[in-house]
Amino acid sequence: MPTGRVFDYPVTYLANVGATRAKLLKDGMGIETYGDLLQYYPSKHIDRSRFYYTHELTTNMPYVQLRGRILSFEEEGDGRKRRIVGHFSDGHGIVDLVWFNGLRYVEQAYKLLTEYVVFGKPTLFKGRYSITHPELTEQQSLSPMGLRPYYSVPEKLQKRGLNTRMMEQWVLTVFRVLHEPLPETLPEYLVQEMKLMPRDEAIRAMHYPRSSEQLSQATYRLKFEELFFIQLNILRYSRERNRRYAGHVFAKVGEYFNDFYYHHLPFGLTGAQKRVIREVRQDAMTGRQMNRLLQGDVGSGKTLVALMSMLIALDNGFQACIMAPTEILAEQHLDTFRHFLGDMPVRVELLTSTVKGKRRQAVMEGLQNDDIQILVGTHAVIEDNVCFHNLGLVVIDEQHRFGVAQRAKLWAKNRIPPHVLVMTATPIPRTLAMTVYGDLDVSVIDELPPGRKPIQTVHHYENRREDLYNGLRQQIALGRQAYVVFPLIKESEKVDLQNLEEGYKEFERAFPEFRISMVHGKMKAVDKEREMERFVSGETQLLMATTVIEVGVNVPNASVMVIMNAERFGLAQLHQLRGRVGRGADQSYCILVTGFKLSGDTRRRIQIMTETNDGFEIAEEDMRLRGPGDLEGTQQSGIPFELHIANLARDGQEVQLARDVAKRVLESDADGRHPEHRGMWEELARLNRYRTDWSAIS
Ligand code: ADP
Ligand code: MG
Q1: Which residue among 292, 393, 449, 556 is least crowded, i.e. fewest CB within 10 A of its CB?
Q2: Is the CB of 299 under 6 A from ligand 1?
Q3: How confident is the model over 502-536, as pLDDT tens digits?
Q4: Cβ 615 under 6 angstroms from ligand 1
Q5: Atom 19 (ligand 1): residue with closest C-alpha?
């Protein structure tokens, strides 16, 4: 039987996997086939040749193996704390085995005074060691000793009876029916040159290593392979795209750009802004379609770069549009652009879902007959019925809010796809950028406009309300404005936490002399707009809001950002919120208000915020704390293939290496016809089979 096929067998071919278990495996662990099973690598290996004695136990042992007998069972506690305790003795001391669920099952399954091998993590409680939910095996039924795989099974599945031993049995079965070596996926010359372990040996060794040395070589090989295929995929698509799609040629910089630059720009550009505009120009001149990611910390002046890039499009006879994630932000861009452009003959219009009826009709017509040169909007601009006369450039602001599918729609907007400039203030760590946005060229604004004072960030416990109020009073007395942000609008959980509406009442009582705006996601767009407007115009001094203000809002006079229940926000979000202040020349402040009880991770988040204003540093730390899969904004874009072993937070060097090698391989084999690469392309096709085909998009 060819191994390729065994790899694809559904798990239901296994003796004790029926429809129910198959579904559990699929939903809970992503395992559908024999191949998936083999690639569900053990989370660790246990040296099962070693038995411990109870008197040797210490508190920092990850897992131990003991040999002995259960002397008696006892039920303890009630309600959710109800548990069954088995008193286990190995002749040297007693260890309590504890089960919190399946109580009846436990008593039936395990016999008193029978010799068991117990396996689990010991913890010390009231002077006695206990092992919660231990694994018990009868002494005789143990397989050969040595390094044995330990598969972590999600708790939900454990409750349904799945455990590491079952996994082990299934994996063994798969190896038994696999009569040929697993096919090599990397070109042989790479395996040789990089001294990689062959794939067959590596996968086997992941489960049953002969030594820890062999295990680490296997891990390295498979990690490299994962990263390599991701890079190969990305790089191949961007090459193909360049070949397939011509881009508009923006040959010149003309009247619009120059008029703006020399007569309308209220301040000098920063060096970084100039550099990025130059990069955009160079890209757009080449006749290949531009796909550029612009990363710049909050307040670094991306909007202006967007506007000036658009003017280059206009200079070459094209229209341009910018897409923002929220209506508030789209409206603000409209105002900003109109304000910046002053009396220049450029027509800028807005299109959001609230632009309806005649107004909408007028915008549609203006776009088609080329009267409107710049369109500002939300995702409404990518609806199918919006037709441009000649769209040359699309700017996507705060990219992390948009999904891949939405970007794809842009490609239908013109016969030749427009150039795309994607802007994000969520700094993406390098390794992740190379992976998620690996096919985009990257520009970075690493410089803030001059005269900004770094924001001072402090942490307050919530009982220091008076200090907080006094601080706010002082700032407002100086003519400044302040934001107060709450994580939730309506209390839905039992947790005692002030919500926005309650907070609003409190602040009204505390500040009878001030006017307060309130904005949240459940409000009607017109009301939101009015409340924002009151704040922007300076009529109100305080803006109390949920995170709708998170992205993009620009009120330079605001100098204080108060974040209530700051423990509820992630690092990226905190940093985004903080970025709403510090936009003028005044000293600005960010006050993180939390309760007393903080977990270790939360404490660390707050600490980082008070220590640094550097978005990249914060992003790196965020990735370390949360792991790359969880990084805000990356779920949507999605890492192309699932990572089993590689870890983007840790394996930066390997990501770079994989990218370099993939580039070289592609360059040596432009048509993909090289016989040595056949297995590699087959593997890539296999990996791609389960994905939507995004080949035409960035
Ligand atoms: P972001 O990158 O977060 O989108 P914005 O584009 O909103 O930042 O810019 C933040 C503020 O800085 C705005 O008030 C903008 O007018 C101002 N700004 C942008 N570029 C410069 C510059 N070169 N010099 C001074 N102020 C600038
Ligand atoms: Mg912005």
Answers
A1: 556
A2: yes
A3: 888 889 999 999 999 988 877 787 888 888 889 98
A4: no
A5: 301
